[in-house]
Design goal:
The chain is mainly α. The chain is about 60% helix and about 0% strand. The chain has four helices and no strands.
C-alpha cells in the first residue's frame, strides 16, 4: 500500500462554496449512510494532493534511490557487512 505524505495547508482557511456535478446514485448512497459530502470531498482532495506530492518526491529523489539500490546490489547492506540481520 502506498504511503500518504502529510499535506501542509491551512486547516483554518475559510470555507468556500463550489458547484460540483456528481453521480446521483453515489450521492444517494452516501446520504443514506449519513455521511457529510463536504467532508468526503475535502478528504478526497487531501488524498489526491498527498499522493501527487509523494509521486513528485519519489521522482525528485529517483537518482538517490537508484544509487542506493546499486550500492546494495554491489556491496550488500550495512547490516550484512557487520554481520547483523536487521
Amino acid at each position: 500500500m502506498e504511503e500518504i505524505m502529510l499535506l501542509n495547508y491551512n486547516t483554518n482557511a475559510p470555507r468556500r462554496p463550489v458547484n460540483l456535478t456528481v453521480n446521483s446514485e453515489l450521492v444517494k448512497m452516501v446520504r443514506s449512510e449519513k455521511a457529510n459530502l463536504s467532508s468526503l470531498f475535502e478528504q478526497s482532495m487531501i488524498t489526491f494532493l498527498s499522493e501527487r506530492e509523494l509521486t513528485r518526491w519519489k521522482e525528485e529523489n529517483k537518482d538517490a534511490f537508484d544509487s542506493y539500490n546499486r550500492m546494495i546490489a554491489e556491496r550488500g547492506s550495512v547490516s550484512e557487512e557487520i554481520g547483523l540481520l536487521l
